[in-house]
Specification:
Layout (H helix, E strand, L loop, with lengths): L2 E5 L3 E2 L5 E8 L8 E8 L6 E7 L4 E3 L7 E6 L4 E6 L8 E9 L5 E4 L3 E5 L2
Parallel strand pairs: 2-11
Antiparallel strand pairs: 1-3, 3-8, 4-5, 4-9, 5-6, 7-8, 9-10, 9-11
């Protein structure tokens, strides 16, 4: 069974870059037909899709966050990483990584989520 675990700092200062890593176990991030996603949920709001990286290494981003977002991967560690630059308090949220099956759009597994607070 595939498991995902987010890690990274829980507190980031405004204007800095938020960096989170998702470590995947029980399956390879290079396996076909999978998209490796980042999703966040600000306090009191719904889920917001941030972007994903494909099993082939191509990355796609939400238009509203594209200018500040980068998703990359380290296949040797079976990890993928989110970087969000120039953060503001509005980027405070619980951040999740998730595996999506590409041909169905099903969110198959989620990480537990990690709280990130942007504050000076």
């Amino acid at each position: 069974q595939v498991q995902l675990q987010e890690s990274g700092p829980g507190l980031v200062k405004p204007s800095q870059t938020l960096s989170l890593t998702c470590t995947v176990s029980g399956g390879s991030i290079t396996s076909a037909y999978h998209y490796w996603n980042w999703v966040r949920q600000p306090p009191g709001k719904g889920l917001e899709w941030i972007g994903y990286i494909t099993s082939g290494g191509s990355a796609y981003y939400s238009p509203s966050l594209k200018s500040r977002t980068s998703i990359s991967r380290d296949t040797s560690k079976n990890q993928f990483t989110l970087q969000l630059s120039s953060v503001t308090p509005e980027d405070t949220a619980v951040y999740y990584c998730a595996r999506v099956i590409s041909y169905s759009g099903e969110y198959a597994e989620w990480g537990q989520g990690t709280q990130v607070t942007v504050s000076s």
